[in-house]
Design brief:
By secondary structure, the protein is α+β, with helices and mostly antiparallel strands. It is built from three helices and twelve strands.
């Protein structure tokens, strides 16, 4: 399974600084220069960012050289990193989260995770516990393609009375059923009229690794 992960905003800033510095100066920045650029209080913070970039195969370091940072020549990730806006929140429980356009946060994602899609993509933060068995936990970032073209058993974002919810969709003769994916019996399906339109389809789930200031792509589990 592909182990590459998304970049946090700070990791992206470090990467872009190194890339621009190499282009302009012909050599890599020192740890101290990166620390000044980032306003970091210690060199340890810088090494943690570099360790994250190494895990993602974006840079390689020679720890015995003062300017021993180089970009990975065989990595296409540098050309295919796309910043996707975080589009408010969506409830994975009862419909209680208002869907508003709030683009104050961005997640940087390799295009390899986008299934060939680049347009109409956004990230929405999940709230609640009704989708845990699909790998969508409370607080997960979910990559969404804005589309109405969905089929039964797709994981979707639906807008119900200005409220966004994430559910698994299925179709009956005269109804649309938005079902939880959870073993918790307190969550129940939402049944809507057949002409109901969905807002988007789930493409990937992005797990937040809080103790590492990092994100990780996890596969979607559909039941």
């Amino acid at each position: 399974m592909d182990k590459r992960t998304t970049l946090t905003p700070k990791q992206r800033r470090v990467y872009e600084f190194i890339k621009n510095y190499l282009s302009k100066q012909g050599q890599a920045p020192t740890l101290s220069e990166i620390a000044r650029e980032m306003g970091a209080g210690s060199l340890r913070s810088v090494t943690q960012y570099l360790e994250a970039l190494e895990r993602k195969n974006l840079v390689r370091r020679n720890r015995y050289s003062q300017r021993g940072i180089e970009l990975m020549e065989d990595s296409k990730s540098a050309e295919e990193l796309i910043s996707v806006p975080v589009f408010a929140s969506a409830g994975c429980g009862s419909p209680s989260i208002i869907a508003e356009r709030t683009f104050d946060e961005y997640v940087t994602i390799s295009s390899a995770f986008m299934n060939g899609k680049r347009d109409n993509l956004f990230v929405i933060k999940a709230t609640g516990g009704s989708m845990t068995d699909a790998g969508i936990l409370d607080g997960s970032f979910v990559l969404i393609e804005m589309t109405e073209d969905v089929t039964s058993n797709d994981l979707v974002v639906a807008i119900i009375e200005d409220t966004a919810v994430i559910k698994k969709i299925s179709f009956a003769n005269n109804a649309v059923i938005l079902s939880p994916v959870s073993s918790d019996p307190s969550y129940h399906p939402i049944i809507l009229q057949r002409d109901f339109k969905v807002f988007g389809r789930v493409v990937q789930v992005i797990k937040t690794v809080t103790d590492q200031d990092d994100y990780q792509i996890v596969p979607i589990e559909q039941n």
